[in-house]
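Example 4.3 (complexes with small molecules)
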Amino acid sequence: MNLSLLLLHDSNTNEDDIHTISKKLENVYQIKIGARRIQEIDSFAFDASREQYDGQKLLNKLIDDMKLEFFFWIIQDDLFVPLMNFVFGLASKYHGAIISFYRLENLDMKIKECIHECGHIYGLGHCDNECVMQYSNSLSEALEKPPYLCDECKTTLQKNKDFLYKAKNK
Ligand SMILES: [Zn+2]
Ligand SMILES: [Zn+2]
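Answer. The structure with zinc ion bound is encoded below.
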């Protein structure tokens, strides 16, 4: 079975990183990265007083644009959501996710956060186990979590994918 994901990134994102991240996501989630496309950020979501982009506005617009396609958008600019100073990324279950590399120092951390946000796309919530789905609100928390899914999340993922696959092929 195959649930393909559209990978979007801005033109500042390193091609080698994109390639590595694609392979990791395909491997962890047993999905296919269907296509890749450059998607630059639209200034409508920029908050000048904070010098950050409103992640929720960007995500909502993309959900409208994409309709039923799953998407994963990598950007270099800093993101916030209301009531938070910043977020590494945000996702909408069964739609898509945005991830910002702005605060992520190295490729390992970028990969980890991508695996985390992608988990939300396929319906995984936050997890207290030794698991990539642990909630992290700071760099040190993001550093500590492992880059893999725990067994519980793997089971949930399989159920969710079966559900999505059936819904898609009805
Ligand atoms: Zn999360
Ligand atoms: Zn877990």
